[in-house]
Structure formats: structure tokens, C-alpha cells
Design goal:
With about 300 residues, the protein is an alpha+beta fold. It contains 13 helices and six strands. The radius of gyration is 28 Å and the shape is globular. About 25% of the residues are buried.
Amino acid sequence: MKKEKVLLGLLGATVVVGIGTSIWFAVANPFATEDKAVKEKVIKQKVEAKIDKHLEKYTPLKKEEISKMTIDEKKDMMGGDGANYESNLMKIGQGQGKEEYPEDKAKAFEKELIQLASSASYDKILNKVKDELKNYQFTTGTNTKIASIYYDASIMMSTLTAPDFQKGKIAKDMRHPEMMVIGTIMLPEKERRAIIHDFESLSPIVNGEVKILNHEVLRGESDDPMLKTIQNTMVGAERVHKIEFQVEKKNNLIAYVIEYNNATLEYYGMYAPKDKTYHYKTIQFFKEMDKDFDKHQSLKTDGDK
């Protein structure tokens, strides 16, 4: 009987201890709480690191200055108010007492300039805008887009004489979304890698006109799945330009260009529409080809030695 009582006592104690242990692990485990806190801290650090990288890239602030800012101050800069966005838009011809180019003519003029860019007629863009600058300035509304096209045409003209390895770095600073799409296609494949963020993006090797078909601006309320992907991976991607364009007079592609709140751009990538399959390869494909080629050349050199 005593033996049975002892066994029952031990069993009861085991159950109590078991329940207590379960409760401790589930509710009061300080290590579990600490682990959660550590994870949250790591996530916050990663987010802040992304913001720091963005501010270094797209603002005149130095790394040391950014490190002294609070996270709230950094987020305020990332969010950017309307005044910040407006102040960073491209403007040309201002401060000379000229009238603003008429808004009712601006959209048609913008379209005309983009059409010239489609066939790489950058010199004609510069000449047309220069003619208008004799009498007008381009500082508000659609005129800031015309100013961006003028700026981008100057950039693309400079790539014509630049060494190949510098072309992408130069073109990366373009400020009009459609100009960025057109200009990137006209660069050598390898130089596009300095511009396009997603290496799973297509990178067509094509000749001829790049025709813009449609352009819409996506925001948070859009159900476009690519927008969600971009916003989950790119800090500050509140405004994304979805641009449908045509190459080789038959194949349509869709480009996504991020416009940040300081009015700068980042080309995320270009892709085939859902119902289309093309022979075009991705940037990653070409990178692997380069890697294999370099490896082959290295082996060949060793063999020759």
C-alpha cells in the first residue's frame, strides 16, 4: 500500500511538473520572450539597413550623417512629403523671366519627344527643346516631364561616346520612366545590369524601334501581383510605373520602373505578359554564360601555359 501511494505521489508530481513546465514554456519562458525580441530587433535592423542604403544612394547625405539620424527621421525622408517630391522634379529654363510652356500643348510635345526617343533620335529631342527654351521655361506640371526627357536625351547622347563599361552607370540616372525603358533596351546587354534591379528580368537582344504602348502608375490599391512583389522587396516603392512596350514590331513586354519620393527612378525589370512566351533570355542567363566563358578562357590559358 505504501508502495502504491509512493508511486501515485510520484505520478501526480510528474503531472504537476509536466503541466507547470508546459505553462512555463508556453507563457512564462523568458528565453522564448527573449528569442522573439531578438527576432524583432533583427527585422528592424534589416529594415533600417535597407533605408540607409536607399538614402545613401538617392540623397546627398553622407553615410556618417545618416547614421546620426533616428529611424523616424529616416522614415520621414523615405516617405517624402509633396514639397520634397516637387522640389526634386526636373526643371529647365527657369530664372530667366520666361513664360511657362503652355500646359495644353505640353502633353502632345511630350508624346512627340518620346516618339523621337523610340528611334534613338536624341539629337532631335535636344534641338526641339532648345528651340522652345528660347521663349519658354519648363518647370511645372507636364513640363517637368519634358525637362526630364531633355535631361535623359543628354544622358543617352553621352553614352554614344562613352566606353561600354560606363554606359549603364551613366544611363542609370535617367529621370523619365519611358525614356529609361527605351534607353536601357538600346544599351549593350551587359551594361543593362547596372540599371535593372531584378536579374530574373528579361534582357532582349533586339534592333529597331522601341514603341511605347501603354503607361500606368500603380499604387498601393492596385491588385497587380508584381507591384506587391516590388513593394515587399524595395523600400520606398510607393509609386511604380507599369509600361507596356513593343520590340521587333511584334513582341510586347511589360516594364516596371519605381519612382521614389525624391523623384528618382529605379528600373525593377521587364517581363513577358502572362499569355506570352518569348525566346528572350534573362539577365541571370547571360551572367551564367559570362561565368562559363570566363571559366573556359581560364582553363584554356592554363592549358596553353
